[in-house]
Amino acid sequence: MAFEGLSSRLQNVFSKLRGKGKVSEDDVSEAMREVRLALLEADVNFKVVKDFIAKVKEKAVGKEVMDSFTPGMVIIDIVNKELTDLMGGSQSKLARATKPPTVIMMVGLQGAGKTTTSGKLAKMLQKQNHRPLLVAGDIYRPAAIKQLQVLGEQIKVPVFSLGDQTSPVEIAKAGLQHGKDNGHDYVIIDTAGRLHVDEELMEELRQIHSHVNPDEVLLVVDSMTGQDAVNVADHFNKQLELTGVVLTKLDGDTRGGAALSVKAVTGCPIKFATLGEKLDALEPFHPERMASRILGMGDMLSLIEKAQSNIDTEKAKEMERKMRNAEFTFDDFLEQMDQVKKLGPIDQILDMLPGMGKMKQMKDIKVDDKQMGRIEAIVQSMTTDEKQSPEIINHNRRKRIALGSGTSLAEVNRLIKQFDEMRRMMKQFSDMMGPKGGKNKAM
Ligand code: GDP
């Protein structure tokens, strides 16, 4: 997961500070030394680290901090603000043309994730009720056009292509015209990448740029390549006027150096991050939320937004009614797990909850997709009757379920016990609230 090392190191530094009633200048220096090492280890550009530490230190040794009742907390707050600033301060939104279509040109090296990101972006826009068009302009990478067409079919977004024998400039021009003629309000042009930054590529991109006059030029970089990604961004930005960066593969980037350096080095805001191969694994980049995630303070806002766009509210209401009436069965339980899974991999969800990042580091607690899979297997090995009336699941049935799901009797027992407790709690709660949920009978 992104920022794993950095996050746990910073949290350790701050847990030492947090407990202190009084913080000396030495304490601050020691903490900053550790923050500096943590950032360098996370592959953050050394100049960026130097400036960052200088800024934090200047603010942290001020009289107000030293004299405050909770100096540790104040320092964490300073680091939080500086981290947020480092990544661009506030969210940088996608541009929108005054007269549609808005033209988005996707650029980047081969393998960075340009084609997949084009598809993800189209899907996101479509979800917001826009009518995007994808233009297949990567004629050099074998199968790039086909890949975009397959993505387009999956998300039901049309893909404009002229094959791989027409020049990318002509394709871009014709694609834009096609978009205008067919009422598309966004035209996303997937351009050709190369293995390395070279003059020929830049010239071709400049040509396309001058012909389609894009509202956005988004550079797609692979965050797993760390400082290389930052160098690529710097290079592109000097040759083309980039309007934003998309950081891909943040799910596999345990260090996070690129995310923390790109803005400071290039001046170009990070507009999106992608966290997986699935087509909905694209998130608008919010510097303040990312900083909180790094510091283990969670990101409830992103979680709520995810829930709002992915969870079926009718089903959620029905579930709530069942809980109130204690009619909740194992079938409902499975259904709920399904809804949670729609939000993304469980470890990514946990990272958004305050303090959960730390919990994940504990040895005995394991909440991951594999564990969810085992729970699901147990429930699926139950008969329909058992799922509806869990009280009939006796010892023999439990043994059969364990065998059928490839789990152990202890795991089956634990799940049923937890389920019972959950139902009992719901029942008590709904009794207390009364039939309409308003009166409190216990009073
Ligand atoms: P392009 O050459 O820049 O068009 O790159 P592609 O879009 O073909 O992506 C290259 C590879 O990276 C593909 O296998 C993608 O599935 C993968 N990829 C792209 N974005 C992500 C991401 O956010 N996370 C992960 N894990 N893989 C990604």
Automatic annotation (TrEMBL):
Q: Which reaction does it catalyse?
A: GTP + H2O = GDP + phosphate + H(+)
Pfam families, sorted: SRP54 (PF00448), SRP54_N (PF02881), SRP_SPB (PF02978)
Q: Which UniProt keywords apply?
A: Cytoplasm, GTP-binding, Hydrolase, Nucleotide-binding, Ribonucleoprotein, RNA-binding, Signal recognition particle
Q: What class of enzyme is it?
A: hydrolase
Main localization of the protein described in the UniProt heading: cytoplasm
Membrane-spanning ranges = none
Instruction: Give the InterPro entries listed for this entry.
Output: AAA+_ATPase (IPR003593), P-loop_NTPase (IPR027417), Signal_recog_part_SRP54_M_sf (IPR036891), Signal_recog_particl_SRP54_hlx (IPR013822), Signal_recog_particle_SRP54_M (IPR004125), SRP (IPR004780), SRP54 (IPR022941), SRP54_GTPase_dom (IPR000897)
Domain Signal recognition particle SRP54 helical bundle spans what residues? 2-87
The subcellular localization recorded is: Cytoplasm
Its subunit composition reads:
Part of the signal recognition particle protein translocation system, which is composed of SRP and FtsY.
Domain comment as written in the entry: Composed of three domains: the N-terminal N domain, which is responsible for interactions with the ribosome, the central G domain, which binds GTP, and the C-terminal M domain, which binds the RNA and the signal sequence of the RNC.
Listed HAMAP family: SRP54 (MF_00306)
Q: What is this protein called?
A: Signal recognition particle protein
Q: Which organism is it from?
A: Paenibacillus lacisoli
Question: What gene name is listed for this protein?
Answer: ffh
